[in-house]
Predict the structure.
Amino acid sequence: MITIVGPGGVGGLLAALLIRSGAEVTVVARPATAERLGRDGLTVESAKYGNFTVNPTVTLVAPGGPPAIIAVKQYGLADVIPDLAVAQPTEILSLLNGVVHAPLVHNAFPASVTTNGSITVVVERRADGVIHHPVNFLQVVVPADAAGSAIVAALRAADVDVKAQGSELEVLWRKLSFLAPMALLTSWADAPLGEALNRDPEFTRGIVEEVAAIATAEGVRTSPQQLHEYLEGLAPGAMSSLALDVRRGGPTELGALGDDLIYRAGNHSISTPTIERAVNTIGARLGG
């Protein structure tokens, strides 16, 4: 059995794939979502895995014992930690964006069972509850020392590409260094990535250079060229989940993908005028 905490886009897709592979899965959801899942099941429309519906076991509180995947947004982590700590999972894999959550997860659960990994995927739970996965790509990365975990084995059996490499620090920063520029640019421009990249090339260059400098100072060497090539290689119509959340009026992960970068840059005496401009623009749209 595996517990999925947070059946949004990421959690919903992983839960559905695990169930389809034959795994026993319990989904922990809020009351309204739990009611809908119990009534309608979990429907996926995926460019990679096809269209299908599964019927998960749904609960409001994590069951005791089974391995658990935490797939909530960063701002929802504090709400799920207390019940999950009571459940005492035999393994925990958190798949949150950013790096600010990692100490919170490690402080809440024994180090021997806890892993912070990353997931790269374009996926959204639409208003009708359908998990929409429009791009033929999904990859989970965990630290090398988690290669033999039960969760990794179950994900691989469900046809999820899982790589085990490097340290936890490297796994989290590699994801953040690529995600933050895309998230900040699309949210700042309120536009798909292709348009956001070209709206103000100097602004794009500043975001990329500042994020690369922070990642390198934090211990994961990163070049602006790497990041820019990655952004140019993405689908021009891609939108980040941060940009979509900003359009809805929040809540958002701006703290984890913007404010935390500024804070860490300050620790290394790195100037971040472009990131600060993006964060201020996005914050103003949110009414902050």
About this structure: The first strand starts at residue 2 and ends at 5. The chain has two domains: 2-166, 170-285. DSSP finds twelve helices and 13 strands in the chain.
